[in-house]
Amino acid sequence: MIVGASSGIGRATARAFAERGDRLVLAARATTTLAEVRAECADVDVLTVPTDVTEPDALDALAGAAIDRFGRIDVWVHTAAVMAYGRFDELPERVFDQVVRTDLLGAAGSLRVALRHFRANGAGTVILTGSVLGHITAPYMSAYVASKWGLQGLVRTVQQELRDSPAIRLCLVNPGSVDTPVYQQAANYLGRIGRPPPPVAGPQRVARAIVNCVDRPHREVSVGRLNVVLRAGFTVLPGVYDVLVGPLMRAVGLSGRSVAAHDGSVFAANPSGEAVRGGHVPDLRKLLFGPVGAALRRRFD
Questions:
Q1: Domain range for 173
Q2: pLDDT tens readout for residues 221-252
Q3: Which residues are designated catalytic?
C-alpha cells in the first residue's frame, strides 16, 4: 500500500517496489496521475484507488479495496504531504489547518487503519515519511513544521505502545531536501517560490530507504547528508541557529522568482505538476542513460 503514490517520493517508491515484483495498491487524489503511475509499474499486479486522506472514511475504504483485491495488506507506506509558504500570521487559517489535516492527521489516519489490520493479522509493517523538519525548524513553513514535529511525537509514542507486538513494525523515514515537485506545488503567501536547500537528494534515494525498511526495519531512518549537522546545531547552539536560519532560508530555501498568493495543491490535486522529480537538480540517470549519455558513450567508444 502506497498512499501518496502520484508524485515525488511516493511515485519513486511505487517504482522501487514494482522492480521487486511486489503487488501494489496505489492511492492518491489525482485519478489521471494514478493511471500514469500504474503504467510505470506495468510488470506487476497493481490496484489504483483514488483517495483523499482528509476525507472521512477514505482510508478505511482504501484498506477494504486492497483486501478485496489481494486478501491482505503486508506493508503500508504513507508519503502523502502538502506544503505552504508564508509567515504564520499571514498564512490563511484554512490553509494552515489543511496542511496539518493532510500531513499529520492524514498520516495518523493511515497508521490507525494499518494497525487495525495488522493487529488482526498478527504482523505487518507501517512506514511513514517525516522530515528533518520534524527535528528542527525553518521560518515561513510553520504548518509543515508543526505537522512533522507532531508526526515525530506520534510515531515515538506508538512505537512504545507496540513493544508488546514485535511482529508489527513502525518505521519513520526522515528525508532532508529532496528533488520533488512539492515545493512548486506548495501554497504560497510569501511572494517567492520555494525550493529545496542544498544538498538535495533524489527521490529514488528516499524510496530505497523505504523499501529497505521492509526487509530491515528501523525505528527511524535519516536521509540527507546534513541532517545530523542541522539537528546538532538546532539543539546545541539554538541562539546561533536562530540567527542564521532566516538569512539562509531566504538565500537558499527560496528562489528569486516572485509569485502571487495562491493555494497550490493544498486543497485539490494539480495533476499537471505531479512527477517523480521537481527539476531542482539534474537527473544523473537520465544524463547517463538518456540521449545525451548515449551520444557521449558513442563519442568515447
A1: 2-300
A2: 999 999 999 999 999 999 999 999 999 999 99
A3: 144
Q: At what angle do helices 203-215 and 8-20 cross, to 10 degrees?
A: 50
Closest-CA residue to 193 (of 148, 256, 145, 239): 256
Question: Which residues 6+ apart lie within 8 Å of 54 measured at CB?
Answer: 98, 101, 102, 105, 106
Give the tens place of pLDDT for each residue, 112-152. 999 999 999 999 999 999 999 999 999 999 999 999 999 99
User: C-alpha cell of 38?
Assistant: 500504474
Closest by alpha carbon to 177, among 149, 205, 154? Answer: 205
Query: Which three three-digit cell numbers place residue 64?
Result: 477494504
% residues pLDDT > 70 (the chain): 93
Q: Which of 64-78, 79-93, 282-296 has the lowest mean pLDDT?
A: 282-296
Report the CATH number that the domain containing residue 111 is assigned in CATH. 3.40.50.720
Nine-digit cell at 230? 542541522
**Residue 283: is it exposed, middle or buried by C-beta count within 10 angstroms (0-12/13-18/19+)?**
middle
Scan for cell 524510496, then name that residue.
207
Instruction: For residue 188, report the phi and psi dihedrals to the nearest 5 degrees.
Output: -140, 120
Which pLDDT band, with edges at 50, 70 and 90, does 29 fall under? Answer: very high
Look at the chain and report how many structural domains it folds into.
1
pLDDT band at 281 (very low <50, low <70, confident <90, very high): confident
